[in-house]
Amino acid sequence: MSNELRVVLKVFEEIKATPSRLKKDEVMRLLLKNKPATKLMKEILIYTYHPYWNYWVTSKKLKNTSSYQEICNRHWNIFKVCLNLLKNRQKTGDAAIDEVTFLFDSIPNKLSRWFKQILDRDIKIGYKLKSFEKHLGQLVPRFTPMLAATWDKKEIKEEVAIEEKLDGLRCITIFPEKGEPTTVSRNGRPIYNTEQILKEMKYFERSDLVIDGELGGSEKSWGSGISGAHSKNKKVDGLQYVVFDIIALSDWEKRKCNTIWKLRRSSLKSWFHPTKHVSLSEARVGKFSAKKIKSISTKIQSRGGEGIIIKRTRGTYDFKRSDNWLKDKFKRTDDFYIEGAIEGKHKNKGSLGAVIVIGKVDGVKIKSEVGQGFSDEMRKKLWKMHKQKMLFGLIIEVEHYGTTAALRLKKDRDKRPAIRNGVFLRIREDKQER
Question: What are the C-alpha distances in Å from 23 to residues 4, 11, 26?
């Protein structure tokens, strides 16, 4: 009997083992000659990456005690039945966990690590969905929510709506006509622990709509809340969902929506009912001079906000970065001392993941992680310095968006605030102590 599952897993292993992009592509081209295995891979990738599907259970704490060794196609068919039960909410809570636990106890150990990655919706082999689709064609609906371009500070002559730029996690809520609603990030990854929010938005169910918004929390629970939104196994309190747009699911799937913001906003307000954990964004509508827009932005930033989003009221929802939405964000640079380093994960394993910095922002002491802005070469250089105990005390320049207590490091006894969205710019050679 043919064993397509073993063929697919072997392809995954070979792609993971080779660092060359060209050789990875060559492995995929060889797979295409095996039509049954290609068909199975497509199915596995759809179950892994479909942006509307949520299994509500993660692989964390799942163990495999099976003594079985032989991998066969039947194992995938059984797992697929399990995934369908989870995504259709036919098994929930403890019953869902029991279903997955029982399945993992009855499959070969070598297979369980792949099934865990499918359950977590991310096959970690250094080859993303876009690379697979280059060979296999489009497998799942494209997921490209609208993003804001940067405001150039010039006059805007037409009517606009000004909303506060929220400092949280972009959260897209999908209400299909059939099936269960789900919450996903701007990249189509599942967002967990939103059951209470979905319950409060039950009036949207079976409506064939997509709700766009931002997920956050109280100042006390913001950091743990956003972190918990990525883990089903965390208990999260205080998550808040601020809704700011509505799109027909058919438009979302076609990635073409000609309805202007003013009409979308009117539709959203007619549907919307505020609840304990769900609110509607505040929008200030009118014609504003550039000076007035900047004044509004500065006022929001002065009270700790990140900035504003300027939306053209006659602008469409564009599935890309578009000047129909413009952002004005507070941004500054400061110098900090490096106090420590954290090893990277995945492609940065064995190199720098982030540095821990200390210093002051407007006289306030901070301690924070900075993991963005490093080239691969700089990551290797700084990690080597860390290994040689030469990194401590190095001064670097960092771009950031102010301080926040919500992101402070858990192990910091002094409970200093952290910086928001820190990006490494350069080593301050001119300021190093001699």
Answer: 21, 12, 5
> Contact, 322 vs 314, CB < 8 A?
no
Shared domain for 177 and 92, answered yes or no, is no
Helix axes 21-31 and 35-49, enclosed angle (nearest 10) = 120
What are the pLDDT digits (tens) for 199-249? 999 999 878 999 999 998 754 444 445 666 766 555 666 789 999 999 999
Residue that is last in its domain, among 304, 329, 354: 329
Same domain? For 186 and 307 the reply is yes
Q: Which residue from 134, 109, 104 is spatially nearest to 15, judged by alpha carbons? A: 134
Confirm whether 142 is domain-assigned.
Answer: no
Cβ atoms < 10 Å from Cβ of 353: 17
pLDDT at site 420: 86
Phi-psi region of 362 (alpha: psi -120 to 50; beta: other; left: phi over 0): left
pLDDT, greater one: 261 or 405: 261
Contacts for 339 with CB less than 8 Å, ≥ 6 apart: 356, 357, 358, 367, 392
The CATH number for 201's domain is 3.30.470.30
Q: pLDDT value at position 430? A: 66
Judged against a pLDDT cut of 60, whether residue 370 lies above it is answered with: yes
For the chain, the domain total comes to: 3
Domain stop point among 84, 105, 136: 136
Q: Is 380 exposed, middle or buried (0-12, 13-18, 19+ CB in 10 A)?
A: middle
Contact 166, 306 (CB under 8 A): yes
The CA distance from 237 to 423, in Å, is 29
- Domain limits at 91? 4-136
What does the pLDDT average to over 384-397? Answer: 91
Kind of pairing between the strands at 332-343 and 209-216 = unpaired
> What's the average model confidence in pLDDT over 150-175?
93
Pairing mode, strands 418-419 and 403-404 = antiparallel
Give, in order, the Cα–Cα distances in Å from 97 to each of 94, 101, 227: 5, 6, 21
